UniProtKB/TrEMBL annotation:
Gene3D superfamilies: P-loop containing nucleotide triphosphate hydrolases. Pfam families: ABC_tran (PF00005). Residues 6-241 form the ABC transporter domain. Belongs to the ABC transporter superfamily. It comes from Kocuria coralli. Keywords: ATP-binding, Nucleotide-binding, Transport. GO terms for molecular function: ABC-type quaternary ammonium compound transporting activity; ATP binding; ATP hydrolysis activity. InterPro entries: AAA+_ATPase, ABC_transporter-like_ATP-bd, ABC_transporter-like_CS, P-loop_NTPase. Its EC number is 7.6.2.9. This is ABC-type quaternary amine transporter.
Length: 368
């Protein structure tokens, strides 16, 4: 198997017109990790990525994969060992989805049948219906096309996956799905992944390590995302990660928050209502027969009132979850109380904002 770490050693790229796209880059991508190259437009992320599979050759310095200088590996062999996914999925328009995915196994000399079976199983891997296999790329949504692009990149089972803004052209909901699936794939298939994006949230969500590129192709910081958020290396990184960095950094804290015992159960006919006491400011949480939260009743509203006005949204807190999710659940709740649910969605209790803040204080104390 060997090791598929990727190393940049003093790499510089100056294009023929004199533009220095990458300036003295040295960086190690550990095997089996997901490293994100992030930074504003034009700072050399794509150029750096493409030097890994030799779509771009460095002006000086070396890129090594598995300890071997890639410039000594024949391009065709190198690219077979690296899946490449780009923004516009890059699918062949006149071939069906299955044919697109099967292209690489066919090139590798697998039989037609074997390639087709591999393509079909990959459709499943990336969460697409098998029925879509016979369609042409133009008959798919943007998100589906990106999934097929990922399936095609995985078709040869390459140890390295290079992804250049693969999810930037799809809407936020589909994007969140694709990100979740990538994290899931990463768990299941042990691959070294380099992922380019200009979106810091995406970098924080996906990256084991994040390389922040600055204008002029300079590597400003290379560290786990939590460290980039908590301790930006310089003014550039601090400006780039933005004003919300303290809030984002809460994603990494999962300090225990005390569940308030302020909910009391009253069975009233079909529904169960919780709360309605002074401690909840008079708000009452309505739950369904399985104990899952439905919506809040404002003080003075009687059971049977329309709770849809105060529906419990997607922002629920799971005990053990991050403090960011706890705070968000409290801030987005009409009652100001975060609803805590267990894995099956049943209400466990509520969190008061002051308890979340106290937990944030404690987490801060525990770090310093
Ligand atoms: N073939 C080329 N010839 C000349 N300059 C180039 C070429 N390709 C890229 N550049 C320049 O090199 C710099 C880095 O480009 P690159 O595409 O690597 O940046 P990027 O960080 O990936 O940007 P984006 O997020 O916009 O894709 C830019 O100034 C770009 O204009």
């Amino acid at each position: 198997m060997g090791n598929h770490a990727i190393s940049f050693r003093d790499v510089r790229k100056t294009y023929p017109d004199g533009t220095t796209a990458v300036d003295d880059l040295s960086l190690d991508v550990p095997e089996g990790s997901l490293t994100v190259f992030v930074g504003p437009s034009g700072c050399g992320k794509t150029t750096s990525l493409r030097m890994i599979n030799r779509m771009v050759e460095p002006t000086s310095g070396t890129v090594e994969v598995n300890g071997q200088d890639v410039s000594s590996v024949p391009e065709a062999r190198l690219r077979r060992s690296m899946g490449y996914v780009m923004q516009a999925s890059g699918l062949l328009p006149h071939r069906t989805v299955l044919e697109n995915i099967a292209t690489v196994p066919r090139l590798l000399g697998r039989s037609k049948r074997e390639s087709r079976e591999r393509a079909e199983s990959l459709l499943e891997t990336i969460g697409l219906d098998r029925d879509l296999g016979g369609r042409y790329p133009s008959q798919l949504s943007g998100g589906q096309q990106q999934r097929v692009g990922v399936a095609r990149a995985l078709a040869a089972d390459p140890p390295v996956l290079l992804m250049d803004e693969p999810f930037s052209a799809v809407d936020p909901v589909v994007r969140a799905d694709l990100q979740r699936e990538l994290l899931d794939l990463k768990q299941r298939l042990n691959k070294t992944i380099v992922f380019v994006t200009h979106d810091m949230d995406e970098a924080v969500l996906l990256g084991d390590r994040v390389a922040v590129f600055a204008t002029g192709g300079r590597l400003a910081q290379y560290a786990p995302p939590e460290q980039v958020l908590r301790a930006p290396a310089d003014q550039f990184v601090s400006d780039f990660v933005g004003r919300d960095r303290g809030f984002r950094a809460l994603s990494f804290d999962s300090h225990e928050v005390a569940l308030s015992g302020v909910l009391s159960r009253n069975h009233e006919g079909e529904t169960t209502v919780l709360g309605g006491s002074e401690a909840t400011g008079g708000w009452t949480l309505e739950v369904d027969a399985a104990g899952r939260p439905v919506g809040w009743l404002a003080p003075g509203e009687s059971d049977g009132a329309d709770t849809s006005a105060h529906r419990v949204g997607g922002s629920l807190y799971r005990p053990g979850g991050s403090l960011r999710s706890a705070l968000d659940a409290a801030l987005s709740s009409p009652s100001g109380l975060a609803v805590a649910v267990d894995d099956s969605g049943r209400v466990r209790g509520v969190l008061r904002p002051q308890d979340v803040l106290a937990a944030i204080e404690q987490a801060r104390g525990a770090r310093s």
